[in-house]
Amino acid sequence: MHRIKTLWSLLGALAMLTTVCTFAAHHEAKATPDINGLFTLIFELGAEQTPWSIAIEDQEGTTAVTRFELTAQGKFANGTEYQSTADCGGLQEGAVNTGVCVWTDEDGSKNQVRFTCENAAGNGFCWGSGTGLTGKYAGKVNRWSQRNQDGNVLAAGIWADAE
Questions:
Q1: In angstroms, how far is the first alpha carbon of the chain from the final one?
Q2: pLDDT, tens only, 68-80
Q3: SS3 152
């Protein structure tokens, strides 16, 4: 009788361990991929990607509000390649461009990123930063630079945890 109770105890413990391990593996598979480190990004930014833009000029200078749509491809530090589309809204005031993009990945997941980019020299080369608001970018920040030449943009930067 004692052996049967011991056997049932062992089987119960094994069943609980299996359940816990399965639960942990299931949630680990759903974890956000580690995208920290260097990234690259290539996209076009020309008249076709800018459905509308409104500029207001006053004694302080010109301010423009622009909506643009991007199709980008790139690579994260972990080797993962990606393609995304973005619907962005931005405000350009002098040499500083700020805004928010909602990126949609190939699998349909959406990720929102707030950005800034400053082109003080006016030469199409800007330095900026981004803050991930939702999706795989939530809780992450980046520093990046981009070169816009004739509507072809090459960008690179570093994603890191915000903390």
A1: 57
A2: 899 999 999 999 9
A3: strand
